[in-house]
């Protein structure tokens, strides 16, 4: 990366609850996002992907690790000193219903963002709200309506307009299209692509849907039980996965093509509880190539080529198979 | 296939009405579909399409007294060979079929099992009712069923409560419960939607295996086109309470006839195409399901709609084993 | 779609006829209380010994009490004290209950302390706590209000806290925090606006409870001083004459039932209307 | 589970401590010197001073508080000013009528309330529901003392079926006691059934809309089995709570009813103590009543572990 990263996360860890059995939601996660770049966080439940998003925005406090935004460590800052972060990083939520206060009009929902940072007032405020609504493809006249008068897709647009109001550099999009129907999902994906290009937004795009992530993101990080399994460019991760979990995840996602090969290789068993993650490699209990070695040490991320990294003792691409498998 | 084999389930021109605060609505207004023995029919649609309501009406589980079947037939061929109209069957007779010949698996494994009864008791209850087994042998049967759905340590887990199991395990229990009396028709209402991808794959494989072994017909309700491609023999697509197209899974994905089916497939991120500026863009369908008026329900969002689409009733045209509800399907390039 | 929210509110609210009737009854009672000097046929304190314990009739529609005072007039004046005390209790307990409920629900550090105090207050039956408080504070209308407010504030705290706990986890609150909206605004706009409806419903219930409790206290002789006519004191002083003149006891009691019942029905109507879960199920 | 119960026990002890604190300090707010009050009008300043010393009233208030806490922790609730005997003894003498009144009332309330609540939930919106809900609403808004007076007029004075008031002669047979308790228990049963009906109805409605009820129906079970086994089994926890709390609150909350019916119970004791400003008795009664409430709460928690497997494991 030539440019200074917009966001750099180092050794980020979050435990919920108290010892002896805390929920290990996020464990030693490191990544960075360059200005204007979209990084996808993919994983199943318990992978910690949403927790990472909230940690980055400091909506919850990290247990350890650092979060640098534009070079400044914000991981321990008190709320009072987070004004700049709140201006520069925003969130778009999964649930288009619960993410808008049902008692406020659209005008006030978006206006609140402007007020909080004293960005516009009076008639300039109204103008700006109208402008934001039009940016996300809603008529300005809708500003005096309440959220319940909109469909799911329209609400999601309002949520995006609210996030854009402070002109952020980074958007954390937490499953922004998962609750939407396919046809509406496509509308919102395209809108986010447009906005990204128009405003040069960087994004942390959190999703469980590999297809959506591959479409939206420049790079992808695959998470399992709070740890990064694999990280690299979208193309590399999706078409040349190096980690057995990534491979399994890709194989398990049904393709919308009756001629595509049916799902054959399948992971057995359940995702372990984040309260009692397996020792060593957290994936080993379901891994088709796990060996005794895997229980001993947590595998470090290692480089495949370029900035494509994966955390496995065995490189499936280079036939580094364990003797037993 | 459905032409030659007599159907197991045949829904004809079904209409369902609900009383609401703002008057009566008809979330289902013209559903025609059929499931042959041993076949999987996927019923596909987005939210508000009426697919779940349709499935509930087969079981007679519409919320009462608000909802009712107001038109059409739900013909079901019983094991005895007799064909009955489930929509007109007295509730007491319908109860004899529920769980015995028609079974259902629901979307939410976390909440679909009774939290205060062990999973064994819940399966055994059904077995005792329909198969007339005693307490001990019913519990034994429950254990066998857990084994059948690949739950490890079935002997021990039969005495566990739902909250002691993961979502995937609970969905297996739901399937075991549904299969416990060897139904000839299984209705699966979004059975994998609440599950993670890797668990979804397991459950889909399980349902397919059981279907092969037991030979039941499956009505599989889903919004996920990937799952449809994975599991279905034939597909029925619904939009705004109506069936708009039916065909074999290959036909639907390769040569969709209804503009909605076509547009829906093109909304998939996997079908994104590179635009002029080099960006990959997915197609989308403008707007959302709005008020349903005269004419074709999809017309307001359809790029091919012309004036005639907005008036009158559009009928479901059936030709061989494909049907489509569109005035212009012959003219529209696939 | 564009309809006056207030109109919509009333249309929804009064879909059930009973709610409308209760609301009207309540309005009539309140109007009578307000306009007592003009509405009441007699002075409530006018003693006429020759006409003591007269049954309901043309002169005294609801009969007279042991001093020959007109029962209807006393009920109308009694409404002032009974409803006035009830209303005051609602105001006080709503204000403090909402405040502490919001704080306890939003700030985890305050929660333990506030809720233990609430538990302690609720470990005593309403009437026992009230009678104790009045005994310590001294019997006066003000102290009755104070005592009943202390009794009912914990209920409001519980309701507000429970809603706050749910609402503060909702994404729109998270969104506000991510925007850097001040905590005060989050509490006073995002949370307060959304707990307003359960609080409003609770208010009507507490009004009814307070009217009932005040009557109970007065009846026990631990409420307002007996010379002030309230529905409770009327029953208390009439009690010993009930054998000869049942109306002395019957009518003030009916007044209590009518007022409390109307309040509850209106509260129920409000809840049915405001509770989206119930509305969807309709 | 033991951890949970232990934690619960801890918070209940804190609650008791807070009740004691509140009772002690609020009593001190009361006008008048307790010693002067105890001795009556003819007391001299010397008498009062001596008594203050005997009762430790001359010590700093915090010390008094701690001493008092120590006393009540060991079960000594002090001496009644007017009854000339220990408070604990006065309360014990009054416990029997209160106990049976609470027991019978809560039985009446539960036996009427639970079936009515279930019926009204199952036939929601139908005539049964309208009647049950209507009656429950009415019952909730009848002052119990007034209903008591009306009942006395009707069933005791006019019809003569039941004794007008009191608890019978000392040493009277239990049947006679029951006769004396019949009217007050009915009154309290009616008034308290309202809450149980509404709670049962609400929990049943809640449960009936749960997903597993649909599952139970999809198995082909009869509606009776769905309602009684699947729904009621799950609604049991909130219903047990409300029945238990009703019983707990009746122990000290039947004050007015006890007064109307002249039952020599704890409520009656409190009322006379209030009227006589017999603070040790008031304090003692409050502590005992709160203690019973807290114990019943603990009992409810223990019952949960039998009813709900989610708590057990």
UniProtKB/TrEMBL annotation, chain A:
Q: Does the keyword Cell membrane apply?
A: no
Where does it localize? Cell inner membrane
Q: Which GO terms describe its cellular component?
A: plasma membrane
Q: How does the UniProt record describe the way this protein sits in the membrane?
A: Peripheral membrane protein
Instruction: Report keywords, A-Z.
Output: ATP-binding, Nucleotide-binding, Transport
**Molecular function, one GO term:** ATP hydrolysis activity
Q: Name one GO biological process term.
A: peptide transport
Describe the location of the ABC transporter domain by residue ranges: 7-250
Question: Short name of one Pfam family for this protein?
Answer: oligo_HPY
Under PROSITE patterns, the record lists: ABC_TRANSPORTER_1, ABC_TRANSPORTER_2
Q: Which family does it belong to?
A: Belongs to the ABC transporter superfamily.
Q: What is this protein called?
A: ATP-binding cassette domain-containing protein
Q: Which organism is it from?
A: Microvirga makkahensis
Lineage runs: Bacteria, Pseudomonadati, Pseudomonadota, Alphaproteobacteria, Hyphomicrobiales
From TrEMBL, chain C:
Give the coiled coil ranges. Answer: none
Q: Report the locations given in the UniProt record.
A: Cell membrane
Gene Ontology BP annotations: transmembrane transport
Q: Which InterPro entries match?
A: BP-dependent_transpt_permease, MetI-like, MetI-like_sf, OppC_N
Q: Which domain of life is it from?
A: Bacteria
Q: Where is the ABC transmembrane type-1 domain?
A: 79-267
Signal peptide span per the entry? Answer: none
Q: Does the keyword Cell division apply?
A: no
Q: Which GO terms describe its cellular component?
A: plasma membrane
Q: How does it sit in the membrane?
A: Multi-pass membrane protein
Q: Which UniProt keywords apply?
A: Cell membrane, Membrane, Transmembrane, Transmembrane helix, Transport
Where exactly are the transmembrane stretches of this chain? 20-42, 83-107, 127-152, 191-212, 245-270
Under the heading Pfam families, the entry gives:
BPD_transp_1, OppC_N
Would you identify the family this protein belongs to, as annotated?
Belongs to the binding-protein-dependent transport system permease family.
- The name this protein carries in UniProt is ABC transporter permease subunit
- The species is Microvirga makkahensis
UniProtKB/TrEMBL annotation, chain D:
> What residue ranges are annotated as transmembrane?
12-30, 99-123, 135-157, 177-197, 235-261, 281-307
Biological processes, Gene Ontology terms: transmembrane transport
Q: Which UniProt keywords apply?
A: Cell membrane, Membrane, Transmembrane, Transmembrane helix, Transport
Recorded superkingdom? Bacteria
Domain ABC transmembrane type-1 per the UniProt entry, residue ranges: 95-304
Where in or outside the cell?
Cell membrane
Cellular component per GO, a single term: plasma membrane
Membrane-protein topology:
Multi-pass membrane protein
The UniProt entry, under InterPro entries, shows: BPD_transp_1_N (IPR045621), MetI-like (IPR000515), MetI-like_sf (IPR035906)
Pfam families assigned to the protein according to its UniProt record, in alphabetical order: BPD_transp_1, BPD_transp_1_N
Q: Which PANTHER family match?
A: DIPEPTIDE TRANSPORT SYSTEM PERMEASE PROTEIN DPPB-RELATED, PEPTIDE ABC TRANSPORTER PERMEASE PROTEIN
Describe the family membership recorded for this protein in Swiss-Prot or TrEMBL.
Belongs to the binding-protein-dependent transport system permease family.
* Protein name stated in the entry: ABC transporter permease subunit
| Species per Swiss-Prot/TrEMBL record | Microvirga makkahensis
């Amino acid at each position: 990366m030539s440019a200074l990263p917009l966001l750099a996360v180092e050794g980020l860890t979050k435990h919920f609850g108290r010892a002896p059995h805390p929920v290990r939601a996020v464990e030693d996660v490191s990544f960075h996002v360059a200005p204007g770049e979209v990084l996808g966080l993919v994983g199943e439940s318990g992978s910690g992907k949403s927790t990472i998003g909230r940690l980055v925005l400091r909506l919850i406090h990290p247990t350890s690790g650092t979060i640098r935004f534009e070079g400044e460590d914000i991981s321990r800052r008190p709320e009072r000193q987070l004004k700049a972060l709140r201006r520069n990083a925003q969130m778009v939520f999964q649930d288009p219903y619960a993410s808008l206060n049902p008692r406020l009009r659209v005008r006030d929902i978006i206006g609140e963002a402007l007020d909080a940072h004293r960005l516009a007032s009076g008639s300039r405020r109204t103008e700006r709200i109208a402008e934001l609504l039009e940016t996300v493809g809603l008529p300005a006249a809708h500003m005096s309506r309440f959220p319940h008068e909109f469909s799911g897709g329209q609400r999601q647009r309002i949520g995006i307009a609210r996030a854009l109001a402070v002109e952020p550099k980074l958007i954390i999009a937490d499953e922004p299209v998962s609750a939407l129907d396919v046809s509406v999902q496509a509308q919102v994906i395209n809108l986010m692509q447009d906005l990204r290009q128009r405003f040069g937004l960087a994004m942390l795009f959190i999703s469980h849907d590999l297809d959506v992530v591959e479409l939206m993101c420049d790079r992808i990080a695959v998470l399992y039980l709070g740890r990064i399994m694999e990280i690299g460019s979208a193309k590399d991760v999706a078409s040349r996965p190096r980690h057995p979990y990534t491979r399994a995840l890709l194989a398990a996602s049904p393709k919308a093509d009756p001629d595509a090969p049916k799902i054959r290789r399948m992971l057995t068993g359940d995702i372990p509880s984040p309260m009692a993650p397996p020792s060593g490699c957290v994936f080993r209990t379901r891994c088709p190539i796990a060996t005794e070695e895997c229980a001993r040490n947590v595998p470090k991320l290692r480089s495949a080529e370029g900035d494509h990294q994966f955390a496995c003792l065995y490189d499936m691409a280079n036939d580094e198979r364990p003797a037993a498998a | 296939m459905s032409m030659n084999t007599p159907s197991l389930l045949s829904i004809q021109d079904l209409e369902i009405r609900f009383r609401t605060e703002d008057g009566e609505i008809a979330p289902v207004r013209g559903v025609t579909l059929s499931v042959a023995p041993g076949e999987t029919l996927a019923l596909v649609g987005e939210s508000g399409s009426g697919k779940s309501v349709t499935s509930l009406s087969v079981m007679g589980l519409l919320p009462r007294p608000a909802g009712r079947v107001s038109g059409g037939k739900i013909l079901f061929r019983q094991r005895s060979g007799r064909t009955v109209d489930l929509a007109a069957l007295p509730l007491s007779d319908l109860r004899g079929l529920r769980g015995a010949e028609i079974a259902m698996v629901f979307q939410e494994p976390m909440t679909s099992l009774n939290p205060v009864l062990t999973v064994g008791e819940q399966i055994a209850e059904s077995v005792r009712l329909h198969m007339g087994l005693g307490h001990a042998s019913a519990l034994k049967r429950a254990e066998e069923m857990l084994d059948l759905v690949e739950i490890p340590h079935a002997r021990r887990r039969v005495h566990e409560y739902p909250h002691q199991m993961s979502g995937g395990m609970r969905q297996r229990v739901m399937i075991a419960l549904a299969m416990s009396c060897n139904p000839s028709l299984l209705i699966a209402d979004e059975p994998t939607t609440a599950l993670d991808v890797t668990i979804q794959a397991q459950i889909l494989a399980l349902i397919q295996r059981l279907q092969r072994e037991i030979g039941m017909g499956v009505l599989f309700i889903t919004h996920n086109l990937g799952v449809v491609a994975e599991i279905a023999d034939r597909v029925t697509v619904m939009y705004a309470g109506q069936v708009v197209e039916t065909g074999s899974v290959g036909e639907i994905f390769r040569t969709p006839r209804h503009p909605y089916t076509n547009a829906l497939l093109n909304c998939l991120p996997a079908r994104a195409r590179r635009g002029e500026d080099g960006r990959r863009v997915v197609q989308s369908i403008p707007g959302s399901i709005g008020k349903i008026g005269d004419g074709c329900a999809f017309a307001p969002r359809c790029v091919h709609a012309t004036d005639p689409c907005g008036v009158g009733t559009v009928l479901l045209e059936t030709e061989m084993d494909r049907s489509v509800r569109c005035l212009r399907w012959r003219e529209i390039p696939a | 779609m564009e309809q006056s929210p207030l109109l919509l509110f009333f249309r929804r609210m009064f879909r059930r006829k009973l709610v409308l009737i209760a609301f009207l009854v309540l309005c009539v009672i309140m109007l009578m209380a307000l306009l007592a000097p003009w509405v009441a046929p007699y002075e409530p304190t006018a003693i006429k010994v020759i006409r003591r314990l007269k049954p309901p009739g043309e002169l005294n529609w609801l009969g007279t009490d042991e001093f020959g005072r007109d029962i209807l007039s006393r009920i109308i004046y009694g409404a002032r004290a009974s409803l006035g005390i009830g209303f005051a209790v609602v105001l006080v307990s709503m204000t403090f209950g909402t405040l502490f409920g919001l704080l306890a629900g939003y700030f985890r550090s305050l929660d333990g302390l506030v809720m233990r105090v609430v538990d302690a207050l609720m470990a005593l039956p309403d009437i026992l706590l009230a009678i104790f408080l009045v005994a310590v504070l001294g019997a006066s209308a003000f102290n009755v209000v104070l005592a009943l407010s202390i009794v009912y504030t914990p209920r409001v705290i519980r309701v507000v806290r429970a809603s706050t706990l749910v609402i503060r986890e909702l994404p729109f609150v998270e969104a506000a925090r991510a925007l850097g909206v001040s905590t005060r605004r989050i509490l006073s706009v995002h949370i307060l606006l959304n707990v307003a409806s359960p609080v409003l419903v609770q208010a009507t219930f507490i009004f009814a409870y307070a009217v009932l409790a005040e009557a109970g206290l007065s009846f026990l002789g631990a409420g307002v001083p007996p010379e002030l006519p309230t529905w409770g004191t009327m029953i208390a002083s009439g009690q010993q004459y009930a054998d000869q003149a049942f109306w002395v006891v019957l009518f003030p009691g009916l007044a209590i039932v009518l007022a409390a019942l109307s309040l509850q029905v209106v509260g129920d109507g409000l809840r049915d209307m405001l509770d989206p879960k119930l509305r969807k199920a309709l | 589970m033991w951890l949970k119960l232990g934690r619960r026990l801890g918070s209940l002890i804190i609650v008791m401590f807070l009740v004691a604190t509140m009772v002690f300090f609020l009593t001190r707010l009361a006008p008048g010197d307790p010693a002067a009050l105890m001795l009556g009008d003819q007391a001299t300043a010397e008498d009062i001073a001596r008594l203050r010393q005997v009762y430790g009233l001359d010590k700093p208030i915090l010390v008094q508080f701690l001493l008092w806490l120590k006393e009540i922790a060991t079960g000594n609730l002090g001496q009644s000013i007017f009854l000339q005997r220990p408070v604990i003894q006065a309360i014990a003498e009054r416990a029997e009528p209160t106990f049976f009144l609470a027991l019978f009332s809560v039985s009446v309330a539960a036996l009427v309330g639970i079936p009515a609540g279930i019926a009204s939930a199952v036939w929601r919106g139908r005539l049964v529901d309208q009647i049950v809900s209507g009656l429950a609403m009415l019952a909730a808004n009848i002052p119990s003392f007034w209903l008591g007076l009306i009942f006395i007029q009707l069933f005791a004075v006019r019809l003569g079926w039941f004794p007008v008031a009191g608890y019978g002669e000392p040493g009277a047979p239990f049947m006679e006691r029951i006769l004396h308790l019949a009217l007050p228990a009915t009154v309290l049963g009616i008034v308290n059934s309202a809450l149980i009906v509404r709670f049962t109805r609400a929990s049943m409605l809640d449960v009936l809309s749960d997903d597993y009820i649909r599952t139970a129906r999809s198995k082909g079970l009869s509606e009776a089995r769905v309602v009684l086994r699947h729904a009621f089994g799950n609604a049991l926890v909130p219903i047990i709570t409300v029945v238990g709390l009703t019983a707990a609150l009746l122990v000290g909350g039947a004050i007015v009813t006890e007064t109307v019916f002249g039952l020599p119970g704890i409520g009656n004791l409190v009322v006379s103590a209030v009227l006589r400003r017999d603070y040790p008795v008031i304090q003692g009664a409050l502590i005992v009543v709160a203690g019973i409430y807290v114990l019943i709460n603990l009992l409810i928690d223990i019952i949960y572990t039998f009813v709900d497997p989610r708590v057990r494991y």
